[in-house]
Design goal:
With 112 residues, this protein is α+β, with helices and mostly antiparallel strands. The chain has four helices and six strands, in the order αββββαββαα. The chain is globular and about 40 Å long. This is MmcQ/YjbR family DNA-binding protein.
Amino acid sequence: MSRETVNALCATFAGATCDDALGPGHDSWKIGGKLFASLGPDTRTVSVKTDSIETAQMLIDAGLAGRARYFHKSWVAVPLDADPAELAHRIGVSYDIIRASLTRAVRDSLSG
């Protein structure tokens, strides 16, 4: 997937917004003010949240992702040239994890 395709996919999630809070050239995708996907200016990866450190390590060990620099160990960096279905799945899982962590009031205020 290209950076543009990843950004277009992230934009389809209810309540998703993009900013460059992490610095110029970063695409930081958030829901309810919390990050669910991040693309750096010079990287060919998208950083996403997993449900646990163990899941992140399993993805790294399987060669499906790498360690997401500057993020908690439960985050991974998935290459943009990964299988498109896997990449879309990982972004969707990250979105779902972050959305579930929001307060009910915030979740209820989101469209979709």
